[in-house]
Design brief:
Strand content: 25-35%
CATH superfamily of the largest domain: Spore Coat Polysaccharide Biosynthesis Protein SpsA, Chain A
CATH class of the largest domain: Alpha Beta
Number of domains: 3
Helix content: 10-25%
Radius of gyration: 24 Å
Number of helices: 11
Largest sheet: 6 strands, antiparallel
CATH topology of the largest domain: Spore Coat Polysaccharide Biosynthesis Protein SpsA, Chain A
Length: 474
């Protein structure tokens, strides 16, 4: 029996959900609608399909450690984590996964899903997936069409052809329509939102890609064959992959193949593509508000108010989005939330780090939070996981003072190695080789005070690293 391999696409940036979602920590890595992250919800949902094996995950290199850790927290290891060196849209990403799946099982069937969608009714999804898998076994390329109940203009549509169901031939793919046309689509009942989820045989998809976009298959195959294994990851060759053009599955294959079919899906789906759609995906209180974190409101209705680090108070607000993080606050009318992407573009153009990074930055060994800074100094709080080890490194321009506030640290400074316990401290001079390890079973928390002429994160020379980052300075 052919293997059923889920493929999770986790390469998005989610800029419309700024300031929670950022380039280096996008929405799929966040817990937005439950205690689990969207990536974890997607992995668990796909694992619920009968016969599903461990997933293949395609992600950005910068997210690799977080992706691996979040998947492992579910109790299993992925079949592979493929690292895209640059973004090239869904057709090349799925082609990479298909090539890897064929190495696992030449007859593999793929269930492809983005990592950042919400599906409320898991059983309905599993039932639709079973129908899709059966169709894929006959050589069909299956897409899921979301049953459209409202005339959304932000989605593409799929018009179904005639058939008995639950699998229908695809009659037409349609770009995002104006409102009056979207209203006609919903009234007809023959049109579905294009979900971006697919089921097909790996070999079948690659054959159609060869027929309709041979240049993409050629470039992706060259990049895959030149890939290198790095710890738990497969590093796709950058030079070869950069030569691949950017294209979606729909444009490259689904709109051209004669074997495209659609399975209707009515399962509480949302792509959480904006703050208003996230608001719609969450339960509201009696005043129509979604209130998260330390929030107090008065005479406020139909608002999404989210606090992550301090009290947020709102008075007399209606139909607004208010989101607070440690380093940014967003306030916007719901009807203008699509413009958040333009706000992020302005941040990028002005060189603001808030477009890409949170104040708290995650690393494979834990995280650091920049809690204060000024001329020639910076204060960070380091949180090191049990067994976590920072790289053996040195700095050209800064010295560091470390104070242990919880746990025990094993410190290396030049040719000395020693332990520091709570309330103990040490000094790392400029140019000294150093590292921090957590030999304990609880988190290690250290306050780090940096001083010097330059305090940028790129002032790092790595000599050894347990996570394959030696020779890099970021």
């Amino acid at each position: 029996m052919a293997s059923l391999i889920p493929v999770i696409l986790s390469g998005g940036a989610g800029t419309r959900l700024w300031p929670l979602s950022r380039e280096m920590y996008p929405k799929q890595l966040l817990a937005l609608t439950s205690k689990s992250t969207m990536l974890q919800e997607t992995a668990a949902r796909l694992a619920g399909i009968h016969g599903a094996r461990a997933p293949i995950v395609v992600c950005n290199e910068a997210h690799r450690f977080t992706v691996a850790e979040q998947i492992r927290h579910l109790g299993g290891a992925p079949a592979a984590i493929l690292l895209e060196p640059v973004g090239r849209n869904t057709a090349p990403a799925v082609a990479l996964a298909a090539l890897k799946a064929q190495d696992i099982d030449p007859g593999a069937t793929l269930v492809v899903a983005p990592a950042d969608h919400v599906i409320r009714d898991g059983r309905a999804f599993e039932a639709a997936a079973e129908s899709a898998i059966a169709a894929a076994a006959t050589g069909k390329l299956v897409t899921f069409g979301i049953v459209a109940r409202t005339p959304e203009t932000g989605y593409g549509y799929i018009r179904r052809g005639d058939g008995p169901g639950p699998v229908y031939p695809v009659a037409q793919f349609i770009e995002k329509p104006p409102l009056d046309v979207a209203c006609q689509f919903v009234e007809s009942g023959d049109y579905y939102w294009n979900s971006g989820m697919f089921v097909f045989g790996a070999a079948r998809f690659l054959a159609e890609l060869k027929a309709f976009a041979p240049d993409i298959l050629e470039a992706v195959t060259a990049a895959y064959l030149a890939a290198k294994t790095d710890l738990d990851f497969v590093r796709i060759d950058k030079a070869a992959f950069e030569r691949c053009r950017s294209e979606s599955i729909d444009y490259a294959v689904m709109e051209k193949t004669r074997d495209a079919v659609v399975v209707p899906l009515d399962a509480g789906w949302s792509d959480v593509g904006s703050w208003s759609s996230l608001f719609d995906a969450l339960p509201a209180d009696a005043d129509g508000n979604v209130l998260l974190g330390d929030v107090i409101v008065h005479d406020t209705h139909d608002c999404y108010v989210h606090s992550t680090s301090r009290l947020v108070a709102a008075v007399g607000m209606d139909d607004h989005i208010i989101v607070e993080t440690k380093d940014a606050v967003l306030v916007a009318p719901k009807e203008r939330v699509q413009d958040v992407k333009e706000l992020v573009n302005k941040l990028k153009k002005s060189g603001r780090s808030e477009s890409a990074l949170h104040r708290e930055v995650f690393r494979p060994w834990g995280s650091y939070d920049s809690i204060d800074f000024g001329d020639r100094f910076q204060v960070k709080r380091l949180s090191v996981k049990p067994g976590g080890v920072l790289s053996l490194q040195m700095h050209h321009h800064r010295a560091e003072h470390w104070i242990v506030v919880e746990g025990t640290a094993r410190i290396t400074c030049d040719d000395k190695t020693f332990l520091l316990s709570e309330n103990q401290s040490t000094y790392i001079p400029v140019g000294s080789t150093h590292r921090i390890e957590n030999p304990g079973k609880v988190f290690l928390h250290i306050v780090e005070v940096q001083s010097g002429s330059y305090l940028g994160e790129d002032d790092i020379v790595r000599f050894e690293d347990n996570y394959g980052r030696q020779g890099t300075n970021t």
